[in-house]
Design a protein that fits this description.
Layout (H helix, E strand, L loop, with lengths): L9 H11 L13 H18 L10 H22 L8 H18 L3 H8 L13 E2 L4 E2 L1
Helix pairs in contact: 1-2, 2-3, 2-4, 3-4
Length: about 140
């Protein structure tokens, strides 16, 4: 994870703050902290992708990868909004999504991050002998 979002990045610090203070993070500020939620959402999107906990369709292109990461970020944003006791300001949801999407784009644009992330879950069927090929998530031999 440090390769993509180091512990000193605003996203990692936001994630740390929210996870350590899950029951009270929203009371630290007089209004809903959009930047904090967006940073945490971006971090959690990459963390979820790296864990491969529920990746059903493996992305093959940057566009598909970005779509998966955005969807994961939106899930995190929805979770934060649902537990918050603060009122979301008009246009807040769009701003939060925009900040999280910008963070995701920045990470994917840095160095070879996109290629590394795409290769992480890419099927490796062609390099294996036909007798050893399996569909990874199903354990089915071809």
């Amino acid at each position: 994870m440090d390769r993509f979002l180091a512990p000193t990045t605003s996203e990692a610090m936001a994630h740390s703050h929210l996870t350590e203070n899950w029951f009270s993070w929203d009371q630290d500020h007089p209004s809903f902290n959009e930047t904090l939620v967006a940073g945490c959402a971006s971090y959690q999107a990459f963390n979820r992708y790296l864990s491969d906990s529920d990746l059903l369709i493996v992305p093959r292109t940057r566009s598909e990868l970005q779509s998966v990461l955005r969807r994961y970020a939106y899930d995190s944003i929805h979770n934060a909004i649902s537990v918050s006791r603060q009122t979301l300001q008009p246009g807040g949801y769009s701003r939060i999504c925009g900040l999280a999407e910008k963070s995701i784009r920045n990470v994917l644009s840095k160095d070879d991050n996109t290629e590394v992330l795409l290769a992480l879950h890419a099927p490796k069927l062609a390099s294996q002998p036909a007798s050893e090929r399996t569909i990874p998530s199903a354990g089915i031999r071809i």
